[in-house]
Structure formats: C-alpha cells, structure tokens
C-alpha cells in the first residue's frame, strides 16, 4: 500500500504496532543501548529509526521493514556476543580508548589524533573536578566519547 493510500486507521495501527515492536526490541536489548552507547550502538539506532519510519509512513512495505529491523537487531546481538568474547573483534567493531594524559603529562599526539583541542580537554577535566592536568595519573577518551580520569 502506497503512502497516499493509507487512511487514518491504517496509519494509527502501523504506528501502534511499530511502537510496541521498537519498545520490545530496545527493552530486550542491552541496557547500554540508549545510555553510554558506542558508535556501534548509535549506528543501529539510526538505521532502525530510518527503517521504522519508512515502514510506518508507507515509504516501504510494512512487514518487510519489520523483518529488516529484526534481522539488524539479531546481527547486533550476534556481533555484541562475539565482541564480548574477542578483544580483537571488540576493538574492530567498537574501537579503543585513547590515552590523553599519562602521569600528569598531556599526550599531544593522541589529543590531535582524537581531534580534541586543549580547550576541549580542559573542559572535560573540569567536568570531572580536575583543575590541573598535573593532578591526573591517567585520562582516557573512552570508546563512548567520554573522558575518564584517574586522579593521582
């Protein structure tokens, strides 16, 4: 059925079913799915939203969209399962943390590679309650994009 042919009741039914499906998928997924997500998780959320929108509005057939969503979630679970057991695959899929401060010294090469300015680093440190990088034993830009700090 084309988008122009969808009536109010049909669109409402599609919306209700898609809403229930997406709630079930998110609730049955990882707790981190909408929390401290990595790029791996964020990509899935964007793609699911895009597919769900097309199925909801009639831009694509509804049940094939539901199947595509289910297949992507199953792949995500499978990849997560393998990444949990393989450091190599986890690094390939989700990346690695980047050491930005070691023993109070800023690592300028990794800072540049992470496309962070000194102002960005200082802001993140202040949010962690750190005024001076010399007070930090280690600071890492985590895979989630957040800065983690271990004080001296």
Q: Could you tell me the number of beta strands?
A: 4
Euclidean distance between termini CA atoms: 63 Å
Radius of gyration: 21 Å
The strand order across the widest sheet is 2-1-3-4
Question: How large is the count of helical segments?
Answer: 6
**Coarse structural class:** alpha+beta
Oligomer: single chain
Low-confidence stretches: none
The percentage helix is 55-70%
Order of helices and strands: HHHHEEHHEE
Strand residue percentage: 5-15%
- Number of separate structural domains: 2
What is the mean predicted local confidence, pLDDT?
87
Main pleated-sheet profile = 4 strands, antiparallel
The coarse silhouette is: elongated
Describe this protein's structure.
The chain is an alpha+beta fold. The chain has 2 domains: 91 residues; 56 residues, CRO Repressor, CATH 3.30.240.20. It is built from 6 helices and 4 strands; from the N terminus they run ααααββααββ. A 4-stranded antiparallel beta sheet has the order 2-1-3-4.
Reconstruct the topology from this structure.
Blueprint: H1 8-28, H2 39-57, H3 62-85, H4 87-94, E1 98-102, E2 105-106, H5 108-113, H6 118-127, E3 136-141, E4 147-151
Antiparallel strand pairs: 1-2, 1-3, 3-4
Helix pairs in contact: 1-2, 1-3, 2-3, 3-4
């Amino acid at each position: 059925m084309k988008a122009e042919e969808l009536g109010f009741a049909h669109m409402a039914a599609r919306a209700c079913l898609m809403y229930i499906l997406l709630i079930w998928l998110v609730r049955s997924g990882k707790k981190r799915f909408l929390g401290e997500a990595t790029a791996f998780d964020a990509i899935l959320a964007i793609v699911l939203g895009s597919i769900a929108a097309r199925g909801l509005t009639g831009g694509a057939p509804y049940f094939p969209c539901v199947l595509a969503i289910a297949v992507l979630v199953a792949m995500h679970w499978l990849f997560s399962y393998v990444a949990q057991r393989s450091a190599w695959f986890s690094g390939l899929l989700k990346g690695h943390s980047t050491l930005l401060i070691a023993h109070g010294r800023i690592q300028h090469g990794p800072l540049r590679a992470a496309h962070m300015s000194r102002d960005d680093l200082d802001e993140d440190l202040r949010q962690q309650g750190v005024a001076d990088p010399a007070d930090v034993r280690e600071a890492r830009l985590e895979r989630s994009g957040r800065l983690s700090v271990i004080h001296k």
